[in-house]
Predict the 3D structure of the following.
Amino acid sequence: MHIYNTQSKTKEEFKALSSKTVKMYICGPTVYNFLHIGNFRGLIFFNTVASWFQHLGFSVDFVYNYTDIDDKIIQASIEEKKTPLKLSEHYIKEFEKDKKNLKLSFTNIKHPKASDHIQNMIKFIQDLEEKNFVYELNSSLYFSVEKHLNYGRLSGRNLNDSHLGTRAKTEKGKKHPADFVLWKAAKQDEPSWDYKSIKENKIYKGRPGWHIECSAMSKSLLGKELDIHGGGLDLLFPHHENEIAQSESCNDKTFANYWMHNNMINFGDKKMSKSLGNIILGKDFIKEHTGEVLKFLMLSVHYRSELNFNSESISMATYNTAKFYSALNKADIILEKQTQDISLLSQQDKEYFSLIEKNITEAFCDDFNTPAVFAELFKMLNAFNLKISENKFKEKKVYAYAFKILILKIGKFLSLFQEHPSSFLTELDLLLLKEKNLDPKEISQLVNKRSEARKNKDFLLSDNLRQDLLSKGIQVQDLANGTSIWEVEKK
């Protein structure tokens, strides 16, 4: 198993801290509004990571936090006339609904909220204070980056970089521009807690800085050392860099052995952002296209590559998702709810399925190369459709069963293809019919009328009805058992 480590900029063989457990902390969202699809990329991808490690025999401690106290939350709470914690709690619940609708396969995820770990943050800062990494400025407490010898090794920046620390407004009087706040002085009408300085025997009324939140939560739930720390590429600096500095200064341990960062999402070749107004909310996308299509689209591109959302990529993901479900539906029709003895497969087919699974395993173990996984799944899909079209193929049921079992097995790692095929295709088609302003009852009547014409050998009427359906974007397939199935054209 090899993982690309952002810190070393190379693929490294994965060696867990424990032979039984993988400890994984992923930075979750700041919850001050409905979350856009960019917030879902990390959740979907790292769910696949957790599922794969579980398949390899590890127990996975997966922590995905919520930042529920932050400047943006406070500003939004003023605009919505709610307390910051009530506002964030509302949007956490909304995100949980979206997550539930995604039906992710790895469900044992811890979701700590920053506001529940304030005392852990205070203790963390006190430990840093005792080691002389902390100084006071205008009633706030700052971390002195110059005292951490390896500052910048994740991002590749150094303390002499003239731009270091200028991303945000710099407080006058800091010892170094990159010094970051650990404890923010309280402002009127903002949430605040009491921090007691262990050196000055003084109370600082305020709230935690952003970076300290993740360090304290990960330490509380996973200990001083992590196997994997991950998140979006935009968090690499300064957030993750600052987490390393304060965690290793406090704990005298390597904070995380592997750093994994998923890349950004573009919309129409531009970075998706609230400031540009080109965001797509996760809840809206799931409602309009289903969670399956969102997962397929997210995982069809390697996690370290940029992902471009546009009408074409969404349409292609919809079409490809439907192709797999259509094949699974055909398999169910062939199987007629019967299981099969896979040992009855021909030796050639056994070797074929074994090779596909071997290639998929190698792809997952090569830095979670999900595009390569999909390539193998498409090979299997095309082979299945070709096989079952052969009228004299005697092992059709056994082959269909072997295909279905492997698709479901691999799909579980991706949190895909676990829906009931016929029901999912119906759901997807209803959404697409709505887009086309077509009445599903009218389509069903036309398909039934065509089936009746075929039964009566009125082939002219049958062909005319097929052309009418095609003009509406409806594809009809006649099965060997005399039935017909239809679906909306997906591209």
Observations:
- The CA atoms of residues 35 and 281 lie 6 Å apart.
- The longest strand covers residues 226-232.
- DSSP finds 15 helices and 17 strands in the chain.
